[in-house]
Protein 1
Amino acid sequence: MTRESADIVIIGGGIVGLMTARLLALEGADVMLLEAGDLGAEASGANAGSIHLQIQCPEFAAYGEDWARAYRPCLDFLKRSQALWTDLPEQLGADLGVRLAGGIIAARTDAQMDLISAKAAIEAEAGVETEILDRDDLLKRAPYLSPEVVGGGHCRLEGKADPLQVMPALARAAVRAGARIATHSRVSDIAPARGGHVVVTACGEVQTGRIVNAAGAAAGRIGAMIGTALDIKGFPLQVTVTEPVAALVPHLVYSAAGKLSLKQLANGGCVIGGGWPARERADGVLVTDPGSLAGNMGIAAEVVPAMARARALRSWTAWVNGTPDWRPILGEDPNHPGVIHALFPWVGFSAGPMTARVAADLALGRSSPVALGGLSLLCD
Ligand SMILES: Cc1cc2nc3c(=O)[nH]c(=O)nc-3n(C[C@H](O)[C@H](O)[C@H](O)COP(=O)(O)OP(=O)(O)OC[C@H]3O[C@@H](n4cnc5c(N)ncnc54)[C@H](O)[C@@H]3O)c2cc1C
């Protein structure tokens, strides 16, 4: 068994862990990232690639305006993260599939239109502008939509990135910056030690002064190792990609009728998701739920009729990290100075760059670049 040391240990090699490792290494920190499996092999590499900014409509409909107002600090956070996404391809010197053509949300009834308008008013209070469009203006801007739409909204800052390009580029950039990375090194215990902690894996132990918990859906288990209860867990989701079709949809498309995110890749394939649940088998393996697949494709074809003719090529599944009220768990552990939790739920791909910025600053002993009160569950 090996025994190593590092000033900072990052647990988890998803978007948050890798981005934090890169930022810390760029500043000359001695950083080691421990990943249980392969880099980017969980939610960060398997997500739908939406760069979200607006409040998700199904949750707004389900939880209401008070919830949405409490979520406003997250909108500001997502806006800052979007700005970081804009710069990322140049910083990494790689095409990450970042395209920010805006998000379109479509309504087919007046009640859905009211929902979009009420949501947009709360978004505006947080500095996120969603332009409300009548039917004609919406169809001019998004002619691929069903003629049955009655109107919608356009949030110009939204867009997409390709997780399959992002994650390998991030891994290369973190190593280039000087981060040490150990894959297939699942953390099984964290023990207090002089000057910090000893982080234990099957491959060895690492003595460290600071720890960043970036373990995504499994972050609660890392919290439990130091006696901190974190209200985060995994929820199984699925996404589907169609065969390539002619260039049609430049936007990220949503429906006010239910769960949908739809975008077209550079190769013409359309990625269709929006939070539809996958199924967990008795042996713990995730499989596609046929009911979710039918529901997801159905709502996609309702909003973008051309989707009814596009054949689904492949569906895949992954665990998303979820907190009950959608707010992040971000900041230093109240009982364990030097342990930083870096967990942004549900839309953590969009929030990844800013989550990593906060985690890196805290790990370097600086204050957070954004106020964590009201934002992070750790500050309640
Ligand atoms: C199907 C699906 C679609 C999604 N679509 C979108 C979207 O379109 N837009 C968006 O913004 N978000 C989306 N999300 C959410 C987003 O992908 C996640 O919120 C985000 O990727 C979380 O990143 P992370 O780095 O925190 O966690 P992860 O990517 O889950 O990484 C955590 C890493 O920690 C490792 N780990 C866990 N336990 C240990 C341990 N004990 N020791 C060492 N390593 C450990 C894991 O192996 C994993 O690699 C989607 C999620 C899913 C599942």
Note: The chain has a mean pLDDT of 97.
Protein 2
Amino acid sequence: MKSLKIQRNLFLILFLLATLAVILMLSSARWYYVYPEAEVNKVYRDSLVKLAIGAGQHRDMPFSAVLLYRDSMIGHGINTVIRDSSFTGHAEINALQMAFKSYGPQAFSKLNHDEMLMLTTYEPCAMCKGALCFYGITRVVFYKPKAFVHWKRDHVNELKYDLRIRSSGQADLQDSIIGLFQEKLGIAAQSE
Ligand SMILES: [Zn+2]
């Protein structure tokens, strides 16, 4: 009787693992990501190749990205992790940074981000995806899909992050810092 119960539990665990594996495999196929903006791709394909080769010359991985706004390029970037010893030096972040800098934070925020399109040679990582989502840039076209191993790592880390993140229970710290900052600003404004 006991061994039957163990067998049943084992079968259930195996079934759940197999279901999870199938879900992961199906998700990684990403067939729903094919984006038929062929004309845009053609125009900027050469730019992406030239940019990516430039990244390779600095021993960085040859990845590149361009940020389009109403079909005009407002930013471009290459991988500069090694060149600049920058852990945020991904092509997409650099393309965003270029546009952000040239417009300035206020003017950039006023643009209609739904009309922006990030074109990139390699599917964005979790960090670049986060930056794109943060700025509401949700139209992305990539050429090479991320390897399953990277996709899995990103998702596992995201899950671990969600499970491990904790609140200190002291939200007033940030509020008091803002209060102190405003107090200082008030004092500065008065002394001017
Ligand atoms: Zn990235």
Note: The pocket of zinc ion is lined by residues 90, 92, 124-125, 127-128 (CB under 6 Å).
